[in-house]
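FAQ: What does the model actually see?

It sees only this:
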Amino acid sequence: MDLFVTTFESVIVLLVIGLIGFYIIKKKVLPKNVIGILSPLALEIALPSLIFARIITTFTPDQYPDWWQLPLWWVFFSALSLGLTIIFMFVSKKINRREFAISLFFQNAIFFPLAILTGIFPNDPSYVLYLFFFTIFYPPLLFSTYFLFFKTKEKIKINWKKIIHPVLIATIIAIIISSLGLKINEDNFIVRIFSLLGAMTIPLLFLILGGNIYNDFKEKGKLQVLEITKFVIIKNFLFPLIFLVVIFYFQNFMDYHIALILIIQASVPPVTAVPIVTERADGNRAIVNQFIVASFLTSLISIPLMIYLFESIITF
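And it is asked to produce this:
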């Protein structure tokens, strides 16, 4: 029950920060276009700084000999998620099927898990490291494949700046530095600069998230309650329950930290970039917005519940 409460509190914190961002844009404390200015600050400066500082101060190959396995587990996770997406997408109406599928497949792989793991293990940086290694190739996957979910009228050009993302670059450079034995102390002034920049990652990201939800939900269109209900049941409950069964039968082949990351990844709502890439591919952004908002609100209960079931059923 302690883990349920801790996870619940972590998700509450995220949603409250998101609500503040929602309020700031709704009340025009800041103009709505400020979100477009803050997003690169969060994703291209703050988050890479956080990753770089954490890795170079805490990671050594000797302490984490199996770190290279985490991207392979991510491949396993993504393959199983794709299979489930292909199966469950046919539950939706044909007109919404592609939007339903892309929202199921692309989870909020970094931001939600980062805040949850920080809340559960405030004094243990290893789980955050495991998350960074697990998701190292997630942004390239998102920005190089999203258009495959849609039949676009025009050929979409791949944005290599999005694929070779600062997050990927920061992770690789930090791994190389640490692998060379150049471990740097946290008191180093360069590390302190990156740490201070990285410290604003979570609050900034969720302020942006709340603002984006307000901007997007104004264009939500007609509410499709049945479609939203089906999506939430599948994304917030069936996905993690299926992964829970998989973890149960394969727990002898994985360590605790891998199993925990898998269940968190399976439980989180869609990534907030989905409406943007959906619109870019000529999809229906309005229904995707509805899926995301409903899934985010439901996650207040569904994520702690799945973590509680994980701790109750899985034994290591």
